[in-house]
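User: Run a structure prediction on this.
Assistant: Running it now.
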Amino acid sequence: MLDLAKVERFRTLATARGPLLIATDLDGTLAPIVQRAGEARVPTSALAVLDRLTQRVTVAVITGRDLNTARRMVPCEAAVVVGSHGLEATFTDGLLPHVDRVALGLALERVEQEVLTRVPSALVGVERKAISTAFHYRDAPELEGRLREALHDLPDMLRLRDGRRVLEVLPNADGGKHRALAALVNHFKPRALLVLGDDRTDAVMFEEALVQRERGLHVLIAGVSGGEETPPEIVELSDLMLHSTDEAIEALETVARALGV
């Protein structure tokens, strides 16, 4: 449960002058982390408050999930969704990168085959997305070293990204959640910004939020704790820490009530 000091920070942000943009991660922030990525769900309470918030502010979900999956998990029609770490989006902006999907698909297929040849037991943790492939090892942490070795030499067009018990191969494009946030600010022109996240991929988004603060935006950065899995960068860059996805939803509810929706 949020303490009074945190409640006041969210209320103050909600009443800040000018349009508000809420940019939130998905897994570990809105949806609790689960053993198998395909079983993750956003609670109905979170979906309800996101729907209410879209009546007054711009709500954007920025996630490593591919765009179609993210849309299924967050079926809020008025919410903006940016998938694949900034490489897919439901809006168009010049700051978002272009991806050659045909060449990318062939390259990912070759990588998957190589990994499964060298680490056959990794099959259960393979998650093929629209423009990336994630290798989850939450169910088998002993596979991490072998997966890293198998993914050590990637083709130039691909790169490796670390997450919470997952290694993801994605396009070596100038993407990332920081680019996604910059594009959102450029497109929607907010004057206040609330950013929520829990993982290393969110740390760069937090850094971009700090840049926007220097440019004059009223910014509040809320990290969501994942216990011992919480990257230190999240704690260091956050204005405040929320202890769970439940508290993240409570924070959004606080903003919604302050906005009168």
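The longest strand covers residues 218-224.
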